[in-house]
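Regression check, FE2/S2 (inorganic) cluster case 56:
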Amino acid sequence: MVVCICNALRENQVRDAARAGCRDPLSAYASLGCRPRCGQCVPFARELIASESAAA
Ligand code: FES
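Current build output:
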């Protein structure tokens, strides 16, 4: 599913970034070559990253 509409980021991309070591939405998005725009997706992205961190 799409997490970030502004940047067309999918859930898998954010999870991959989290597994690659990104610990917050800002660094995850930066690693994907973009950054938060409207900010609407940030809480959900943060949850995804937290769940990947917990699973690691
Ligand atoms: S939906 Fe991600 S910045 Fe707008």
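Comparison notes: The longest helix spans residues 42-55. Strands lie at 2-4, 9-10. No diff flagged against the previous build.
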